[in-house]
Amino acid sequence: MTQATPLRSQSIPVTDPEAGLRMTEIFYSLQGEALTSGLPTVFVRLTGCPLRCVYCDTTYSFTGGERLSLEAIMADIAQYPCKRVCITGGEPLAQPNCIALINRLLEAGYEISLETAGALSVADVPEAVSKVMDVKTPSSGESDKNLWSNLDYLTQHDQLKFVIMNRSDYEWSKQQLIDYKLDQKVGTVWFSPMFNVHDNKDSAVEVPNLARELAEWILEDAIPVRLQLQLHKIIWADAKGK
Questions:
Q1: Would you say residue 6 has pLDDT above 60?
Q2: pLDDT, tens digit (0-9, with 9 covering 90-100), for 38-89
Q3: How far apart are the first and last CA of the chain?
Q4: Cα(124)–Cα(131) distance, integer angstroms
Q5: By CB neighbour count within 10 A (0-12 exposed, 13-18 middle, 19+ buried), where does 10 fall?
Q6: Could you read off the pLDDT of 122-150 as tens digits, one per residue?
Q7: Which terminal residue of the chain has fewer beta carbons within 10 Å of its beta carbon, N or C?
Q8: Residue from 231, 233, 241 nearest 196 by CA
Q9: Which ranges of 70-209 would DSSP assign to H, the alpha helix?
Q10: How do 226-227 and 159-164 pair as beta strands?
Q11: Is the pTM of this model over 0.70?
Q12: SS3 116
């Protein structure tokens, strides 16, 4: 592909509203996070989320959207020259038909990743799907929503992500890594700095550049995690549909 910016799809008319999903957007771009970072991907963003993390960058997906049938969604995805799909939100698992969509995509030969906040059960997500699950840190404001029983359903095919806002979040996350042996439960544990945090100050530490500070903390402690930066935001800033 030679196109420099993501393609946005046109919504396909609803054929069966009762059997579908409420969608915020479907678009084609480069994956900006996780193990497939940099690869062309079709993003399917579902509407709605029960959490309200303070750093959320997709608040526009909390409400609204358009209800589409599963057939319409599949047809929309098929417009793009890519067999890699990322289902995201909002919180995609807040809509029960998300699993039905996943099964249809798997039957059609798509490689699927699912971005989930970790507050709803992943028990019914097929093992073929790479689950990219958040563990909410204290500064997110939603750490009490972490559904720790989800760890029982994760495999080496899956990934965990901690969004770090300050040193306190880092120390808390490091302790969860140790207590739950998270690096043994999943293939990759990501520590990701809250994006665009500059001159951030809190009671624990002054952070002139959180990404650099986080990198130094990881190196100092030599913990088995990977630092993650959001590629799509580096390229396209905070634009929607990227």
A1: no
A2: 999 999 999 999 999 999 989 999 999 999 999 999 999 999 999 999 999 9
A3: 16
A4: 12
A5: exposed
A6: 999 999 999 999 999 999 999 999 999 99
A7: N
A8: 233
A9: 70-77, 97-107, 167-179, 182-185
A10: unpaired
A11: yes
A12: strand
Q: How far apart are CA 144 and CA 231, in angstroms?
A: 29
Banded model confidence at residue 17, pLDDT cuts 50, 70, 90: very low
- Looking at residue 204, what is its pLDDT? 40
Amino acid at 182: L
Nearest residue to 143 via CA among 114, 167, 123, 117: 117
Beta-carbon contacts of residue 175 (< 8 Å; ≥ 6 apart): none
Work out the average pLDDT over 171-199. 89
Number of alpha helices (DSSP H) and beta strands (DSSP E) in the chain: 6, 12
Residue that is written with structure tokens 């997906």 in the block: 61
71 token code pair: 């057939």
Amino acid at 234: I
Residue at token pair 């991907």: 41
Using the predicted structure, report yes or no on whether residue 207 has a pLDDT greater than 50: no
Q: Structure tokens of 147?
A: 């559904």
Computed over its alpha carbons, how large is the radius of gyration of the chain? 18
Summarize the chain as % helix, strand, coil (round to 5): 30, 25, 45
Structure tokens at 91: 């919180």
Burial class (CB in 10 A: 0-12, 13-18, 19+), 209: middle
